[in-house]
Model the fold of this input.
Amino acid sequence: MRWTWIRRYRGPSVPRRTLESILDATADFLGVPDQRVTIVLAGDRLVARLKGQYLGEPRPTDVLAFPFRETLPDGETYLGDIVLSIPVAQRQAQAQGHALEYELAVLLVHGFLHLLGHDHEVDQGEMAALEREIRRRFIDPAFRGANSE
Done:
């Protein structure tokens, strides 16, 4: 997988290598061939604007996923964009008593599954079960001992 990071929010540093390793392991686990994904680190204002524009709900949320699934001129597939609200992730991490980095990993996996076509709104818990399995296999071990529980 090829991950492109775009920072649209000034905030804490993000452990990109760790997060990419988790996403790569998730892609391998799911049998996803190499594709390109853009990850945007954003603030509440940008996320609220995007959510309003594309979902008709102009308020911040933790993660948005925009699937593209287009073949690029070089033959690679562009899977889509994942947009994370760093402020929402910070609030959620604090409320749940774990590290921001752990929360970002959970949100990135959630967004990645949406790019792959999973939809927790209609799948009777299948996506949530898959997220729990990925958390157990890849996220928890990556952050063990780092205030992730």
Q: What stands out?
A: The first helix runs from residue 16 to 30. The helical segments are 16-30, 44-55, 86-96, 100-115, 126-143. The chain has a mean pLDDT of 92. The longest strand covers residues 63-71.
